[in-house]
Amino acid sequence: MLTKESITAKETKHSYQNVLIVGGGPAGLATALMLAKRGWTNITLLEKRAAADYYEPDKSYNYLIDGRGQKLTDFLGLTHQLSEISVPSTQFILTRIKPNGSRKTSKSPVVDRNRKTAYWLPRRAFVLLLYQEIERNWQEQINVLFNTSCVQINKTVINDGEEKLEIIAREENGNVMKFEPSLFVGCDGINSIVRKTLKEWDKSTSDGFEMKYFPSPSSNLKYKVLSLPPNFPLDSTGKEHSVCDTAYSIRGRFTDRKRSVSLGLLPQKNPNEPRRANIIRHPDHKIWELKNSEEVYKFFEQAFPQLPISQIVSPEEAERFAESEGGYFPIPQYSSKLHFLLKQKQVGGTDQSTNGVVLLGDAIHCFPPDIGQGVNSALEDVFVLNEALFESNDDLSVALPLYESLRFPDVKALIRLAQTAYPWQYNQAPLRSKLWSINFFLRVLLSRLLPYIFSPPAFFLIQNHRFSYQEILIMVQRTTQILYVLVGVLICGFLALVLRTVEI
Ligand SMILES: Cc1cc2nc3c(=O)[nH]c(=O)nc-3n(C[C@H](O)[C@H](O)[C@H](O)COP(=O)(O)OP(=O)(O)OC[C@H]3O[C@@H](n4cnc5c(N)ncnc54)[C@H](O)[C@@H]3O)c2cc1C
Asked: pLDDT of 17-66, one tens digit each?
């Protein structure tokens, strides 16, 4: 196990099995478990937050772990436990509540019977599930250090041009630690210090670790989360209460762009957990101007006359909501390099590189949550790294380039899908949203009528883990091309008809 002292990886036959992971989100914890399950030891994970289930109100959204994410939970033997703490997608029930209080409940139709059941659960519950697995079964192999930030990454040259890593971490109390891992894993999210350091090291030869940005209609939308009590009353009579495993879409009364708002609540298994209502609007929306709890109450009472706001929003929560900075949906982005190998001793005239750095999760691809693939793609990264390690017999000089070549084409396709698959769902521009819906339902209809010619919309295909992101993009682009040709033929036919009528 890595100690708090400087550690030199030199003696053991499997010296590469000295691992440091930065980031205790889904990607970092899952990577630690995957490596331990492969037989690796000496794995240390640094997480700057205080605990696995550390509560951050504006990061308390729900995940839907689909078949893609479950490839890894299956490998880790965790899918059954996952199912026990989640709401299955097959039981997704949505209640829509209008401003006049009328309610309509519907069960989501089964779109594809062959698709694996997916599971809804809060981010916190999923991260805790992974951490508890470490505590239960892998404590000897994995050491998780909370309240510890990676603050500096150095690459130093020792004998004969051989390079080694030196990582500086700082505990919350100011203690400094130094690590010299053979495998260094960056799972530290969108602002990854690991990727930024690799960008500096690599900048004279390429811009491969520079994030490439691709616009989307949903990027830069602002969000905040409003916490409501478990089973909160749905009206002022107090007769009807919310149910934990039901999703709610609560429409506001305002219709103008700067005030229109709705609350979205996703299902959860635990009846005692508070419910979280997501609010997602343009950055210039009135709701972001509310300065204190009085203004919060006034706005919400006017916007949601159907809800007993003063009963369900506590004064502390109203104040917290007003003070919270909230967050912004990121612009879809990816890094085209996913690994870095350090120079090792020359053996037989060639470089033997066994020390390396690898990036996974939001550190290499990040996008708004429209398609629910943030966590699933991160887990799939870990799954692909596992495959690359398997193929290369855990030789990092082969495994890390293999991981990049296997994964990068999918990362690129994923970002294109994130840009186009479902960006108008937040009703941020009603006309564009309607046009997008027409396109969406046309594809659904055509794919049902002529399945060999038209494929379903990307949003449906993405949830089928048997297709890679690349395959999905190819299918969707092919349907788009056919639709363009059809529209062209219809326009030409119409013009020909008009000309003939004029001639007659
Ligand atoms: C508002 C919002 C809603 C979302 N909704 C969904 C959704 O519905 N479905 C979905 O699949 N995805 C969603 N996502 C995306 C999803 O959260 C991410 O894709 C996923 O968490 C990626 O996991 P990760 O482990 O790569 O990164 P993260 O979850 O960001 O974890 C990174 C970890 O690294 C730690 N860290 C960072 N820097 C350091 C450092 N220097 N030292 C030590 N620790 C460090 C952080 O504290 C953090 O715990 C949403 C994201 C946002 C912002």
From this structure: 699 999 999 999 999 999 999 999 999 999 999 999 888 877 778 999 99
- Evaluate: CB of 330 within 6 angstroms of ligand 1: no
Number of structural domains, the chain? Answer: 1
State yes or no: pLDDT of 429 exceeds 90: no
Which residue range forms the structural domain that includes residue 496?
A: 430-503
Q: Note whether residue 435 is domain-resident.
A: yes
Residue 448 lies in a domain: yes
**Chain-centroid distance, C-alpha 428:** 21
Sheet strands (E) in 158-261 = 163-171, 176-179, 183-186, 212-213, 222-228, 246-251
Position 7 scores a pLDDT of 32
What H or E segment, with its residue span, contains residue 143?
strand 142-145
Pocket test for ligand 1, best of 20, 29, 33, 48 (most atoms within 8 A of CB): 48
Residue 265 has pLDDT above 70, yes or no: yes
444 within some domain:
yes
For a ligand 1 pocket test, name from 63, 358, 415 the mutation site with the most ligand atoms within 8 angstroms of its C-beta.
63
Could you identify the atom of ligand 1 that is nearest to the CA of residue 27?
25
> What average pLDDT score do residues 151-158 get?
93
Q: What is the DSSP string of 341-364?
A: E----EETTEE----EEEE-GGGT
How big is the chain by its Cα radius of gyration, in Å? 25
Of the residues 53, 66, 152, 188, which should be mutated to test ligand 1's pocket, given the most ligand atoms within 8 Å of the CB?
A: 188
289, part of any domain: no
Report the distance separating Cα 460 and Cα 451, nearest Å. 14
Cα 63 → chain centroid: 8
CA of 368 to the centre of ligand 1 (A): 12
Q: Is 23 a pocket residue for ligand 1 (Cβ < 6 Å)? A: yes
Encode burial over 177-205: b for 16+ CB neighbours within 10 A, e otherwise. Answer: bebbbbbbbbbbbeebbbbbbbbebeeee
